[in-house]
Design goal:
It is a single chain. By secondary structure, this protein is of the alpha/beta class. Helices cover about 35% and strands about 20% of the residues. It is built from 6 helices and 10 strands. The relative contact order is 0.16.
Length: about 200
């Protein structure tokens, strides 16, 4: 029987695109996606960390999802995304309810992370990369619309903003990748592309 994975996506539309990349990786890896956390064997919470309220929401959501270990089928809870990128080690050390924490550069490794967690390994993953998370996706938007991530990060380092410290320095997706994904999305019936960076 296939392992069922539930995914909760918090934060901005860049996070939504990252979640869609993870969903594609999981399906291609043989996992079944479920929208019902009560049915999930593994729950992934893709987090935001831009504001204190977003960090609080991320932790509260992870704790809420870990409740399905007692009141559902859930065996493992995994935190991904911006909270894992900026505060991952701290979150990993303080939230024993969470079985793995990873940042924004490990989405293509999500199947291995899930399998390792199911095999009893509790781990904090942190990979440095200059690449923007990009790849095949399972859309979570209405069928006629999709977000297209063309860049990530920021070089401004404004005193009030965490983006460079979470998403890294500004870098663009190569034009040929953007065009190829735009065509792929159009072939799936998408009529409206919203560029995010």
């Amino acid at each position: 029987m296939s392992t069922k994975v539930g995914v909760v996506s918090l934060g901005c539309d860049k996070n939504r695109v990252d979640t869609e990349i993870m969903l594609s990786e999981l399906v291609n890896g043989g996992f079944v996606i479920t929208p019902n956390p009560r049915e999930a064997d593994v729950i992934i919470v893709n987090t935001c960390a831009f504001l204190e309220s977003a960090r609080r929401e991320a932790i509260e959501t992870a704790l809420e999802m870990s409740g399905y270990k007692d009141h559902g089928k859930c065996k493992k809870v995994i935190i991904t995304g911006c909270l894992g990128e900026k505060f991952g080690e701290e979150v990993f050390n303080e939230l024993n309810e969470v079985d793995a924490v990873l940042g924004i550069n490990d989405y293509h490794n999500i199947c291995n992370v899930v399998n390792s967690a199911l095999n009893g390994e509790r781990k904090f993953y942190h990979t440095c990369s200059d690449e923007v998370a990009f790849g095949s996706r399972i859309l979570t938007t209405d069928p006629h619309v999709a977000y297209l991530k063309i860049a990530d990060g920021c070089d401004n380092y404004c005193t009030y903003c965490l983006i460079p410290y979470i998403r890294g320095r500004y870098r663009s997706v190569k034009m040929e990748k953007v065009v190829a994904q735009a065509k792929e999305l159009a072939d799936k019936g998408v009529k409206e592309l919203i560029l995010v960076a």
